[in-house]
Amino acid sequence: MEYYCKKDALSEGVLVRTELLCDLNNSHIQEALKNKKIKEKSVFLPYYLVDALVTTEYLQVKELITEKSVKEMEGAPEYVNLQGKILYRIVSKICKKYAMEEERETVRQMHLARAIKWGSLLAEDGEEEGCEREEEEILHAGRTAWRSGR
Questions:
Q1: Is the confidence at residue 6, as pLDDT, over 50?
Q2: What is the mean pLDDT of the chain?
Q3: Which helix (H) or strand (E) is 59 found in, with range?
Q4: In the chain, what are the domain boundaries?
Q5: Stated pTM of the model
């Protein structure tokens, strides 16, 4: 997991509210969630953990993107730099499963803002290494439009 800041992900990282769909009396679950505050089968988990579990039947995402978490993500460079793939991978995965249209639009706007911010640094073709597919498409479309004078 080279794409996230371990310190932030483990201590101060952006958390996702999830509902546990498993038996809380299971000893493995109790050990995994030791020292985590569980309220009505809901618990806040970091992105990297939700990423690993979102396609299983163990949890369901309750809130995808809140205004507070968007502000936290915008303020944390490890989530928005060109190598910050983990945020976009997990948000994309959750969006496909749960998101409402306005949340999908929020994710698209985050991709666009990130691509615009860093697009000027990627002057030549083939420099998109580290970008997500959506960002590569935005950068390619922008380069094509720029070269054609549109």
A1: no
A2: 63
A3: strand 59-63
A4: 6-148
A5: 0.38
Tokens representing residue 22 in the block: 């498993």
Cα 114 from Cα 33, distance rounded (Å): 34
Give one word for 30, left, alpha or beta, with left for phi > 0 and alpha for psi -120 to 50: alpha
Q: How far apart are CA 59 and CA 109, in angstroms?
A: 27
Query: Which token pair is 63?
Result: 């809130």
Question: Are 91 and 134 contacting, i.e. CB atoms less than 8 angstroms apart?
Answer: no
Cβ atoms of 52 and 4 closer than 8 Å: no
The structure tokens 């439009």 sit at 145
Instruction: Determine the angle formed by the axes of helices 67-75 and 101-119, rounding to 10 degrees.
Output: 10
pLDDT digits (tens, 9 = 90+) for 13-64: 567 778 888 777 777 777 777 777 888 888 887 766 776 677 777 777 776 6
Q: Which residue has the tokens 């794409």?
A: 3
